[in-house]
Amino acid sequence: MVAKVxxxxxxxxxxxxxxxxxxxxxxxxxxxxxxxxxxxxNNPASRSYVNGKKRASEEVGIxxxxxxxxxxxxxxxxxxxxxxxxxxxxxxxxxxxxxxPEQINVQHVIESIDPKKDVDGFHPVNIGxxxxxxxxxxxxxxxxxxxxxxxxxxxxxxxxxxxxGRSNIVGKPVGQLLLNEHATVTYCHSxxxxxxxxxxxxxILVVAIGRPNAINKEHIKEGAVVIDVGINRxxxxxxxxxxxxxxxxxxxxxxxxxxxxxxxxxxxxLLHNTLKAAKEMVI
Length: 283
What we know:
Distance between the termini: 49 Å
Number of domains: 2
CATH architecture of the largest domain: 3-Layer(aba) Sandwich
Strand content: 15-25%
Strand order of the largest sheet: 1-11-8-7-5-6
Radius of gyration: 19 Å
CATH topology of the largest domain: Rossmann fold
Number of helices: 10
CATH class of the largest domain: Alpha Beta
Number of strands: 11
């Protein structure tokens, strides 16, 4: 079996066309969806991500701005800025780019964002709504993964999904979204014993552990769907995922590549959430 590729870049382009049409409809109602991104410090990767979000916003007609703060900014200063944005009716979505400097408590920052403007989907209110299956802002990467599976009409209901990784950003929420779609979900992490025995049971395997090429065909059941969330840069500068693509593709039925896989979908779902926030403020 040679796996079919789920191309996240192509899917994201299709979804952005739909988002752009809806944004244009809002423009006709004199509503301009607006996203504000706060960037603290000079982390090159963070700056690259933030610039990508701004470009993508402009592509679909979403107004955006980047507020740049120094590495030494205090938590109070940052929270004051978020408070101002919460009260600014022109701002529909607020995103604080992670990671943050050590003097700032990340949870304090996340909890300070108005849940109605939390387009990252990390606020405890939105996480709680996700857990209970309510309509809310879903975390962007996990939401993108569900969209990728649905785009290929891959059955989730009744399947055994195994998630490698338990981060608050990807692992935990993607498992919950798969559960919401009626999959049976198993989490594996650094303390899990006999990981390979578990992964080989997976109909859907989501890998988000941050270790290049850590998973290969020895970990995969024939016909499994493999979703690679990892983005790792090798010494020669090439990007690779957490999955050895060539090896895994020999057994998988579907697989996501790196790059052009999950990554583009993350930004697209951020645009979706920003549009959703703007529409809900109009109602």
